[in-house]
Design brief:
The protein is an alpha+beta fold and about 180 residues long. About 65% of the residues lie in helices and about 15% in strands. Helix 1 packs parallel to helix 3 and helix 4 runs antiparallel to helix 5.
């Protein structure tokens, strides 16, 4: 996803030159935004399941009590801490773990950009206002170009990451319990 910034002069404003073209862009993007949200929610529920099983495999209730009010980022951090403890206890770091944590963190940030973007302020090139940043140059308005291609790639990445989470979980369980018959 490409980004651009503009200097905030006095008022938060957005220059949209061709509103019809911006509307067409949004019409094409909206279904993909929905897919990103849907697939991300499925990924988060998979993470919830893994966390619950980490606490105990007998019932989800203790795990659900622990994660009930946690944000996605806090769940990733909890998952990492549980796994770090396991890795220190003798199984060693399981292949792909660091990448898995980095990817879980990254897609969370990308999902937040998509969900919290100011979609009514999308220009004809697909640049959508996402946030105000304070830099050494002063306050800047940041825009991200959510192209159909980039949204499709993000949706695909989330699906792949969900599979990666389950693959890690299987390797982790084999490291703990050995191959099951």
């Amino acid at each position: 996803m490409k980004t651009k910034t503009t200097q905030l002069i006095q008022h938060l404003s957005h220059e949209i030159e061709d509103e019809e073209k911006a509307e067409l862009y949004l019409e094409d993007s909206l279904p993909l935004i929905g897919l990103v949200v849907m697939y991300f929610n499925a990924l988060e529920k998979s993470l919830d399941s893994v966390l619950c099983e980490t606490v105990t495999d007998r019932t989800d209730i203790p795990g659900l009590i622990i994660i009930q009010k946690l944000s996605y980022g806090a769940k990733v951090d909890l998952f990492k801490r549980f796994c770090d403890d396991l890795h220190l206890s003798g199984s060693g770091v399981i292949d792909g773990f660091e990448k898995l944590i980095a990817d879980l963190t990254d897609v969370g940030k990308l999902r937040n950009l998509v969900v919290h973007a100011d979609w009514e302020n999308t220009d004809h090139d697909g640049y959508t206002y996402v946030r105000l940043k304070t830099t050494a140059k002063g306050m800047e308005q940041e825009y991200v170009q959510f192209s159909a291609e980039s949204l499709e790639k993000l949706a695909d990445r989330i699906i792949t990451l969900r599979n990666d989470l389950y693959e890690y979980w299987e390797r982790r369980n084999k490291a703990i319990w050995g191959p099951r018959a």
